């Protein structure tokens, strides 16, 4: 296991503002104020891109067995899950873009200390935002969204849709974030 020695600026910002975030569960429910096309994600092309994105993150040491670990903190969910945040730049194909990953931990009464001691325990899933080329998704700040299982497979919704691309439940819950950047924790990627 590798630990990053310094806390990333992004992790700091997310922790600093998390108290002010709305008390909502980081779940995949379809609720949200924005109308987004629920059939517009999970195509073969979306899944292919998500697999390439996972590979790029894995090559960069962000995901996978030997992934870099950042300090876990309590997420804003009312169920109190623990999360880890990391951001940076990776290249997918010939395009380099900003990524944000969020490791989600779930379990009865889990604590930050417990996950700090053993980040492989209770690791539930990984949410990723990857900023694509300008114009990819003008209504949602050009982010590509994906949810992965710990082994890197793309997660699916209860009705079997692959959670990659313009994933409606992710977008609708992230839309109200300040800065019109769809990022809750900070506005560093606002433009
Ligand atoms: C019910 C609302 C909700 C849904 C649905 C949701 N998120 Fe989030 N997400 C949040 C909130 C609130 C935060 C910030 C607080 C935290 O980290 O817990 C966040 C944080 C994140 C972050 C860190 C960057 C940021 O915005 O602060 C990523 C990456 C992320 N989510 C990805 C996803 C992906 C991918 C999906 C869909 C699979 C998704 N989220 C679905 C509410 C949601």
From TrEMBL:
Keyword Signal belongs to the record: yes
One Pfam family of this chain: Cytochrome_P460
Keywords assigned by UniProt, alphabetized: Signal
Keyword Signal listed: yes
Superkingdom field: Bacteria
Annotated ranges, domain Cytochrome P460: 96-184
Position of the signal peptide: 1-19
InterPro entries registered for this protein in UniProt: Cytochrome_P460, Cytochrome_P460_sp
UniProt-recorded name of the protein: Cytochrome P460
């Amino acid at each position: 296991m590798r630990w990053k020695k310094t806390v990333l600026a992004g992790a700091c910002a997310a922790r600093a503002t998390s108290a002010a975030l709305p008390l909502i569960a980081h779940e995949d429910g379809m609720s949200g104020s924005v109308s987004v096309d629920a059939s517009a994600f999970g195509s073969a092309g979306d899944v292919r891109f998500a697999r390439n994105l996972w590979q790029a993150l894995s090559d960069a040491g962000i995901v996978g067995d030997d992934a870099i670990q950042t300090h876990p903190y309590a997420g804003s969910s009312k169920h109190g899950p623990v999360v880890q945040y990391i951001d940076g730049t990776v290249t997918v194909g010939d395009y380099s873009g900003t990524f944000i990953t969020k490791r989600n931990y779930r379990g009865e009464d889990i604590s930050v200390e417990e996950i700090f001691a053993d980040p492989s325990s209770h690791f539930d899933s990984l949410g990723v935002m990857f900023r694509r080329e300008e114009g990819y998704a003008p209504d949602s700040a050009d982010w590509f969204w994906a949810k992965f299982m710990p082994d890197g497979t793309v997660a699916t919704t209860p009705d079997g849709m692959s959670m990659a691309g313009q994933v409606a439940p992710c977008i609708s819950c992230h839309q109200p974030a300040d800065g019109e950047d769809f990022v809750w924790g900070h506005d560093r990627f606002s433009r």
